[in-house]
Amino acid sequence: MKTANSSAILELHFLKDMPAGNVNRGLDGAPKSIELGGVLRARISSQSLKRQVRLAAYTEWPEAFSGRRSKEHWITLSPMLVEAGCPALVAEDLAKAAMDSTTGGDTLVYIGEGELREIATRLAAVAATKTWEALVKKVEDKKAKKAKDSEEVPVKLELEETAAKSLKKALDKDALAADIACFGRMLASSASMNIEAAVSVAHAIGVHQMSPEVDFFTAVDDLRKDMEETGAGHLGTNEMHASTMYHYVCIDLERLRSNLSAQMDMESFTRVVTILVKKFLFTTANGKQTTMAARTEPLKAIAVLRSVNSPVQVSWDVPVVSETGYGPEAVTRMTDAVNGMAVRMGSMWGEVARAEYGGDQGLEEMVAAITKSLEA
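Predicted structure:
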């Protein structure tokens, strides 16, 4: 799949005001942070951001963004095997053997519906060459605890042999979920399933000094209150902060094209990219959101389509200092920094097109500009 232009990467630089919240906390329950420029800054991990993006992308296009990370994919695979003609009694054990063969055992694996269906098809094809009656009888005896321990081993080995034979070849890219093509997959036990990520996401960083706060709260026991008893039923604290955060995302368009199915047309490819852009701009980490609802629109976003694969984000080593609000100063500084990099980097910048969000420029205009540039 090729585009008419020579765009290599699409970069997103954007700022968001995060109101009082604790969307991403560490082991101690405190908001994550980092020291930069001699002061403490707020931080949101890239992992927490990516998870919310892929979940949000699924709601918009579930057929494409079908990847799920789990140790229990056999639950989905088992009925697929039955649909493909595998005896129901064997399907569950065969599905478990298949996932063990694919992942090397008790491993959290990221896989989509298309790949699971391909696994089911392959297993069914191998299963069709077998006489299952004897194996079904062995499984029945095992489940009824009539079989001796020594007789369970051949059953397991035969299932694992069937799974391994079916999955020795790499899965077809045509079955790969779009979110796995975007965010990649690494399995030490199964190198053929590894996918190099096409989307790089930086930890979001506060542009100014962080001032953590501790909120003391009480919960009233309603029934005791009706009994005219005083005092709280529960006491506790929540740690929080409010910061203006800088986000950076780089989409390697060539890598994404390579990861995705060769059968995907340009319109669908562009849809994948624009869904990513929208979800990155309008999602954030999900910690304590029901308690604090710390979600806002971006203050400013700049999307730069570049022909040179030399990703670079804005430096915030010098913290923003302001008595009238950090946002306006941060927007000016980010815009100036992106413009400055374009000048200083010269041929290493290679700007093809630019689209912005903020002020009079809305999301639909930004997405339309990106779509036009990708398809130009």
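Summary: Residues 9-66+203-375 form one domain.
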